Amino acid sequence: MGGRAWGVLVVLCGAIFLEGIDVAMLNVALPSIRAELGLSTATLSGVVSAYVLGYGGFMLLGGRAADMYGRRRMFLAWLVVFLVFSGLGGFATEGWMLLLARFVTGVAAAFMTPAGLSIITTSFEEGPKRNKALLFYAGTGAGGFSLGLVIGGLLTRIDWRWVFFTPVILSAVILLAALWLIKEPAGEERVPRRLDFPGALTVTVAMLLIAYAVVRLEHPGQGWGWTLASFAGGVAALAAFVAVERRSPAPLVRLGILKSGPLVRANVSALLFAGSFFGFQFLVTLYLQELRGWSTLETSLALLAVGIDAILAPTLTPRLVARFGNTRLIFGGLVLAAVAYALFLPLGLDWTYAAMFPSMIILGLGFALAYGPLTIVATDGIAEDEQGLAGGLLYTAFQFGAALGLSAVTAVNVAALGDGSREAALGGFRAALVVPLVMAVLAAIVIASGRQRVSAKEARLASEEAIPAS
């Protein structure tokens, strides 16, 4: 790759690193934010949920907007929005200001992220170059989340507001570099298209309602009425969206893209994998801080071993992809993740970090093997004018998977708490740890089913070729 190509890749990797570090730092800073602003538990949970709603609700629309109105334009415009509202979060003095800032930041990420991914998939030709670029991209995003846990702990010790101001500084640097380096593809003629407003409205309403329902699963004590109503409304809006798209002469989402078996399997596996990872990380954080009394910084450093994927993804994974292919690598990564979760099941009240370390390092290796190749499979073979849509589908799967995993482990943990003793709390953690294990196993089964179909197809083609020869 030439110098400009590397420059573009570094800028886009910086953007996905920014997203990862932004989420991770905020998660670490929540207790300090609550202490200073006096937020209720519901408002504090809403600070996280607001981002999920904005991100998940607008991701499909954001991905399609990049295809229709220009990837560079969408990337730059929403990076500015991300910068501004992250800064506003740092100046918040009331809970509603944080809620607004996080919601709009999530919306900005929903438009910016698929635009950045589609710039990579359209700037690098399909094959080894694109694969290498995507693996660098995926590794940087994962590294941002891992390092964000540590950096967030350090910044929170100074002032939690730096958790919001630091992304502003990074956004400004990325924006200046992007203005200089990123160009729309030369000679590309973008045909103006009328926005499919009914499609955009129904899919956004559907995603917002479903995201809200998933978030409410974390709080079973609030009752099931609104949760079920939100799910029902989301499903109804989704059905309306499908009906609109079938009749639209210029649909927002071409439904035929969902006929791609590899794309569907990659997205389902991504949803389950993200759910297992974020659910596990959430449980480990609670176990170390609430049950063992570890500090925020000690917990962040304990989880840092998972960040080995940031080193392995751009160095080791491309070689393994070239030798074994994406599907085998994804399957291997998911199996390793399941092993990591299984090793953590017998955790005790007096576990040393040496007993936890195998799970952390194996999970980091599994993440390095699976995350990048999932991104490759989800975008391979997709037409250039639908790359933004493919990216939107993938990141929607990741976001909903993360929300679903967090909700599921929270619900199981709360249900299994028992009498409130330390032993009962430990039992609750053990019960909830089964959820990430089951999700990782299901993801591996989904990927394995695709491998079996490919093998069967190859065998059929081989037999058909052998008939004329005989």
TrEMBL record:
The chain crosses the membrane at residues 44-63, 75-93, 99-122, 134-156, 162-182, 194-214, 226-244, 264-288, 300-317, 329-349, 355-377, 389-416, 428-450. It is found in: Cell membrane. One of its GO terms (molecular function) is transmembrane transporter activity. Gene3D superfamilies: MFS general substrate transporter like domains, Multidrug resistance protein D. Keywords: Cell membrane, Membrane, Transmembrane, Transmembrane helix, Transport. SUPFAM superfamilies: MFS general substrate transporter. Pfam families: MFS_1 (PF07690). GO terms for cellular component: plasma membrane. Its main location: membrane. The keyword Transport applies. The keyword Cell membrane applies. It is a multi-pass membrane protein. It comes from the Bacteria. Residues 8-451 form the Major facilitator superfamily (MFS) profile domain. This is MFS transporter. The lineage of its organism: Bacteria, Bacillati, Actinomycetota, Actinomycetes, Pseudonocardiales.
